[in-house]
């Protein structure tokens, strides 16, 4: 009975601020120019990923397991940039840097959800390359459009459940140390540090999510490419090896762009303490550069997409030239 009373008292004493103050960059002159740069990256990311989505959706020849993964990655990129940048622009170019408690939790959920979706999608694309190179004769038997669609259906359901659970657990915290968030959005870690009651469960889930969606995917991708390189070493001719390896270039670049900006701050902070502004800049770049660069890399490194774009441009340009000549 005393335990129930203690739990009731604890629930009654939970403090939730009406608003959070999103501090972003502080004490840096001309910081507005940096936010304009982020908005430009947002604009390029949305246009680029929208083009990739349209090309894959409209072109039947790209309705394959690999491009279902690319489609999902472009969708995650658009979701992440829309969860971060427009809200940031509204906050820092309006009269107030305040965000309501519920809006903060919603922002936290969508940013974390799309980041985890990007990470898992890169793992699925790595496994696609493993099967294509190591088991080419069984590729269509093991991986088809139905299987890939079911995989991503499970990924969306699992990620939604886990991120929703971790976000909902924030409601059990009393935010009474401060309402100032040292980031440019409602980040899980900075908000968690504002709690003045027991946050061990939240820390546990934060570590689980970091492990499941950062450490484990990175390790799986590394192991996948070890298997790919081992399979390539058995191929007798260098021409065949390079031809197979070229199909992995785009994915390897995407993996580097996604994981390096995330890993670098951890390495840097282990060497020397990072200032709040340095953390904000590194976090913002890790969230905005990959969605901008991903569609560019796929267009430049994927022959099928390049051919389709040339075909579309040719079909548009030829009638215009004929009209001009007339």
Automatic annotation (TrEMBL):
It is a multi-pass membrane protein. Residues 48-298 form the G-protein coupled receptors family 1 profile domain. InterPro entries: GPCR1_Superfamily_Member (IPR052921), GPCR_Rhodpsn (IPR000276), GPCR_Rhodpsn_7TM (IPR017452), Olfact_rcpt (IPR000725). One of its GO terms (molecular function) is odorant binding. One of its GO terms (cellular component) is plasma membrane. The chain crosses the membrane at residues 33-55, 67-85, 105-127, 139-158, 208-232, 252-272, 292-309. It is found in: Cell membrane. Keywords: Cell membrane, Disulfide bond, G-protein coupled receptor, Glycoprotein, Membrane, Olfaction, Receptor, Sensory transduction, Transducer, Transmembrane, Transmembrane helix. This is Olfactory receptor 1-like. It comes from Cyprinus carpio (Common carp).
């Amino acid at each position: 009975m005393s335990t129930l009373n203690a739990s009731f008292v604890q629930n009654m004493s939970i403090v939730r601020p009406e608003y959070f103050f999103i501090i972003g960059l502080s004490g840096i002159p001309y910081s507005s120019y940096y936010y304009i740069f982020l908005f430009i990256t947002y604009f390029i990311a949305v246009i680029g990923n929208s083009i990739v989505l349209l090309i894959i959706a409209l072109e039947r020849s790209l309705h394959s397991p690999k491009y279902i993964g690319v489609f999902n990655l472009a969708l995650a990129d658009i979701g992440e940039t829309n969860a971060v940048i427009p809200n940031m622009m509204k906050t820092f170019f309006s009269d107030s840097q305040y965000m309501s408690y519920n809006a903060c939790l919603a922002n936290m959920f969508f940013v974390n959800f799309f980041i985890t979706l990007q990470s898992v999608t890169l793992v699925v694309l790595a496994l696609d390359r493993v099967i294509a190179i190591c088991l080419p004769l069984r590729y269509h038997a093991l991986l088809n459009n139905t299987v890939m669609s079911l995989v991503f259906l499970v990924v969306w359901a699992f990620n939604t459940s886990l991120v929703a659970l971790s976000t909902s657990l924030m409601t059990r915290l009393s935010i009474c140390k401060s309402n100032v968030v040292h980031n440019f959005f409602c980040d899980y870690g900075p908000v968690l540090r504002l709690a003045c009651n027991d946050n061990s469960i939240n820390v546990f889930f934060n570590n689980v999510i970091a492990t499941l969606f950062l450490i484990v995917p990175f390790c799986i991708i590394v192991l996948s490419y070890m298997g790919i390189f081992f399979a390539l070493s058995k191929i007798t001719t260098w021409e065949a090896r390079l031809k197979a390896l070229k199909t992995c270039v785009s994915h390897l670049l995407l993996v580097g762009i996604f994981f390096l900006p995330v890993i670098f701050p951890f390495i840097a902070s282990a060497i020397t303490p990072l200032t709040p502004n340095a953390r904000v800049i590194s976090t913002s770049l890790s969230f905005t550069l990959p969605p901008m660069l991903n569609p560019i890399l796929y267009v430049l490194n994927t022959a099928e997409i390049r051919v389709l774009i040339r075909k579309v441009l040719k079909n548009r340009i030829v009638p215009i030239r004929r009209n001009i000549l007339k």
